[in-house]
Each structure stands twice: as C-alpha cells, then as structure tokens.
Amino acid sequence: MVNVVRQCDSVCVYLCRWMMCLWTSLVLVLSLTPTLISSIGLVPGVSLYEVVWDHSETLAESILRSSSVLSGLQSGHLTKHCYVNFLQQEALYLHSASSTLEAVIGRLQESGDVRSLLQDTLTHYSSRNLSLAPLPSPPPPLWLQFSLQSLRSVVLDEPVYWLVALSARASLRSFLVEELLNNRPGPRLTPETVGDALFQEWSKDSLKEVTWTRRFKGVLDKHQSNTDMYKAINIFRDHMMNQKSFYKAVDCEAADEEE
After folding, report:
1. Where would you find the membrane-spanning parts of this chain (predicted)?
2. Shortest CA distance to 241 belongs to which of 173, 140, 169, 170?
3. Among 103, 106, 177, 232, which residue has the least CB neighbours within 10 Å?
C-alpha cells in the first residue's frame, strides 16, 4: 500500500513538472511570436495595407456611426454653417500637417516612389482651400495637438512609415464616401435641399481620396518586405484615433447653436 502511495506521489510530481515545463514553453513561444512573425514577414500574397486597415476598420465604423457631420450628410439635414465649420477644421489640420511634411521631405536624401508620393501628398494638402482655415487660437484644439504630435512622432522613422500615417485619413474618407453613397436614400422628388447640395460637394471631394488610397496601398505593399507589420498597424491606428477625435470635435448641434 505504501509503495502504491509513493508511486502515485511520484506520478503527481512528474505531471506537475511536465505541466510547468509546458506552461513555461508556451509563455516563451507567445513572447517570441511577434518577433518571429516580424522577422519572417507577411505571408506571400497578403497585403500590408489590407492588414493595417483590417486592424482599424472598427474605428472607421465607429466614426461613421458617431459623427454628427456624417449623420447630417446622410440624412440631407446638414446645415451650411456646420459644413463650413467642418471644412475649416480640416483645412487647419492640412495646413499644419503641410508644414511638418515639407520639413521632413526637405531632409530626405533618397529619391524614388516613396519620396514622390510624399511630395505629391504635400502638393495635394497645400492645394486645398486654406482660406477657409481660421487662425488657431492659442492653444490649438486638443484634437489638432494630438494629430500633429502623432505625425511628428514618425519623423525620425523610415519614410515608408510616414506614408502609413498619411494613408489613414485618405483610407477613412474612401470608406466613408463608399458607405454613404451606398446607404443614402435615392433621389428625392422634391427640389434639391441645401443638405443634398452639400452631400454632392462632399462626395465629389471625397471620391478623390479613393485614388489617393490606391496610391498609398500600391507603394506600401511594394515596400512591405522591409516594413515592421506591428509598427505599421500601431501607427495607422494611432492616426485613425486622431481622425475619430477630429470628427467628434465637429459638433453640428453646438456649431448651429453658435450661429
């Protein structure tokens, strides 16, 4: 009987040790997995752009559901005052981002498709109607401070990560215009309202971002073998969070009450 008990104790000790070794190995594998995946890279045929977008798509959906500007565009009840406020805030960001982008491009030594796209993006930002941008009152809005801080945080990184950061805004606009065009009510029998005209103006402008999104995707996918996937995911998501703050800051009800 004593021998049986001793054998049982030995088996229990062995099982405990085996389970501890298994658990330790599992923890080690999990801790090394990001490094291993990062060193191996993406599976052939998988797009880096699609991966970073997939990790932020729920954010885009949240922006679509929560933005009073987008709600007004979809319903046709957006006021001219709120729309102008939206354009002013966006122009303020584009103006500030252009200054940062111009500085980093000036220090960039290499040429090629990355630099070319960065330069074209700067031209695109600078061509917007900056006359709409109000002079920022000190201090600038929090959403703008965070957005510029995020953009400047990638200045010392490889230029491809600048494209990751800049692609977030274009990708969001592409997603939003597609969703609103597909889900907005059909043509009205009544005369076109102010809200309808504003939607046409916004959608025409936003459809241009579809082309920009394709360009970002093409260059990012071309350079994905030299890009840290996890870093790209985090940078893209960070800038999507800033876009969410921007859309939340443009409150149509508050803007219309101030009119």
Report:
1. 12-32
2. 169
3. 106
